[in-house]
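Input.
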Amino acid sequence: MLGIAISASMTTPAALAAPASALPAAGDNPAPLFALAAIIAILFFTLLNRQLKIKRLRQDLDTLENEHRKMLDDLQRFTAITNQASEAIMITDAQSRIVYINPAFTSLTGYTRHDVQGQTPRLLRTDRHDEKFYQDMRETLRTKHLWKGTFTNRCKDGTTVELETVITAVFDGQGQLSSFVSAARDVTHEHQLEMQLRNAQKMEALGTLAGGIAHDFNNILSAIIGYTELGLMDTPEDSLVHDHFKQVLKAARRAADLVSQILTFSRRNARERQPLLLGPIIDEALKLLRGTLPTTVEIRKALAEDMPPIMADTAQMHQIIMNLCTNANQAMSEHGGVLEVGLRPVSITSVRTAWQSTLKPGNYAELTVADTGHGMTPETMARIFDPYFTTRHGGDGTGLGLATVHGIVSLYEGAIHVDSTPGAGTRFTILLPVCPADAVIPGFPEEQRMLQHGNQARILVVDDEESIAKMIETTLTWLGYRVEAFTSSVKAYEAFKSAPAKYDAVVTDQTMPNLPGAELARLLLAIRPEIPVILCSGYSASIDANRAKAIGIREFVMKPIAGRALAAVLQKHIQNVSDATS
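Output.
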């Protein structure tokens, strides 16, 4: 009955339409019908199963297409993010071969994808990091799968950049290392600013130390120089003792120059500045230098005409040029080369490089000194402005040259920059602000006059150091002045107050207890505004030449100053003093 039911259910329209004679009779064998029904059932279930599989395949295909579309969207999103990212992104495979870099990487380093494809990051290495640095980095990635740090990498053009970098190890679904992703940010500018800040702080600390010892040391040198001059006055010029005194005086003056350099690089040295042209100073310095340079060193000048003047001290500018050129010569001493000195006007806008960041917008004079010598490593460059740091051997040089240059440039509110590559030479660039267009350049100073007799002019000398007060008194007396010396500024004020017309000039030290020199000068000038006051200072943070002039002080003199030099200063301010003055 089941077979008949199945057969009936599977009867096709064609079978229904067939003539009754074509159907088997009820009494015939039913086996073919069962076989046909079974075949039809098998075919039906096969087709049904295929339809279900096709439906499942279509669903799977739709899922794959959706996932593929999502992956494409993610890839496009990733590409857009990496292409627009400001960080330089690099992806390497498990063997550290570069497989991808973004445009920021190319913009930063100059390397294109074609340049680095298949290369390793060793392409970017410099000698700044040793092998242990890279070993530690690999070990950190192996154990923690993340490394953070700063690289110094080399660009395609040979320059270097400081990169703050994060490297991540990436693993696949089976836990196997598949790639490394590096994201780096350029911090070169920040590092330069940080270095400038550290250098400024270091110079400030050194300046505080230098200023602290300068006053006492200059007082000692004043006494040594002064009494040595007195010894020279009292001994015959052809005597051995006279020659010994000359050597002592020479050494004392060298010590005074050393203190002056220390104060200069620490920006504590106050010198009077005036408008001057750099071109003639450069010419003069190179003429002096030419005789000391070997014939293997060629000097080339490129000095722009009609350069505006700068506000500076002639001796300090001469010192800058000689120091830079001497260093350049030393760098080329072995094989010779070319020394180039350039001068040109430049304009600094609000857009400045890192080393120009301290400059105000305006017009500047750009002084360059370049050589083709052995160059410097980054480690050496980081220390060249440190006092007492030198690469010279055998005790040749004090190491104060570039520190002094840095101090002078900073004092003038300028900027200094150095570019150097080992084996490719060094270039120093200095920017100094120029004077206003209407600045007047003074003529050459008069030659120093011979010391004249003091004509019994009466001088009030005040210095809390008894040896210095005595030395000045003795020297000025020997030169024909009448001197009254005090070691107490308070007593000196009382003496002046009781007889203001008694004195023709006042010479006072600045740093004294109870009543400093500047305050004493104010009190004396309040009584007699026309009296010449000469203020001497070994070092003081509270007074300089400009502040002294504002008080009414005629001359501000930095120690050490001996009696003869002081007499030359007095001579400028005391005129028509007769022996009968009372």
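DSSP finds 17 helices and 17 strands in the chain.
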